[in-house]
Design a protein that fits this description.
Elements lengths: L1 H22 L4 H16 L4 E5 L2 E6 L2 E7 L20 E10 L2 E9 L6 H10 L3 E9 L2 E10 L2 E8 L2 E8 L2
Antiparallel strand pairs: 1-2, 2-3, 3-4, 4-5, 5-9, 6-7, 7-8, 8-9
């Protein structure tokens, strides 16, 4: 049941991002209203969307999702201090979720060098995380995945082709 809820939330989030890109040329208020109605019809829950510039906030029944386009490349200030800052490449977007079953952050980066899995794994280990990594080397360079766990924190990093996605989950 919980996986289905998370899967639904992920699907809705992707739909929102796509719709926001499409509606970015429309008036903000009209775009917000259309997105609210689309999400409310697909989920059956009351939704409140507010957008400004590159930032979008969605609230519904004790859940909150913030999608932040980040031209400034700023690391999330509310990221748990135990998680080492990912300082490879340029931050392009940050997504935050605040739900009854925990908080999560997702940081998407571009222009990431291919051989950073081992470096970031060392940073996680020095912060007390237990880690598992997979490194893939091909003609296109190096990439892979890394996961770490410490107490109620989970970190997942996926890299390849010059981009990276770092996800952090903090359970209550």
């Amino acid at each position: 049941m919980r996986e289905r809820s998370i899967l639904r939330l992920a699907g809705v989030s992707l739909a929102i991002i796509g719709a926001c890109c499409t509606l970015s040329s429309c008036q903000k208020k009209a775009g917000d209203v259309l997105l609210e109605k689309a999400i409310e019809q697909s989920t059956g829950n009351k939704v409140d969307i507010s957008s400004g510039g590159q930032n979008i906030t969605i609230q519904s029944e004790g859940q909150k999702i913030q999608i932040q386009g980040s031209e400034s490349g700023v690391w999330p200030g509310d990221m748990p201090g135990e998680v080492p800052k990912f300082a490879y490449g340029q931050i392009k977007a940050v997504t935050r979720s605040d739900m009854p079953d925990g908080k999560s952050w997702s940081v998407v980066c571009e222009n990431v060098p291919g051989n950073i899995i081992k470096s970031y794994e060392a940073q996680l280990k020095s912060s007390g995380f237990q880690t598992v990594s997979t490194i893939i080397t091909s003609n296109e360079g190096e990439g892979g995945s890394l996961s770490g766990e410490k107490d109620k924190l989970k970190v997942v990093l996926i890299t390849g082709n010059g981009s990276a996605s770092l996800s952090v989950i903090k359970e209550p």
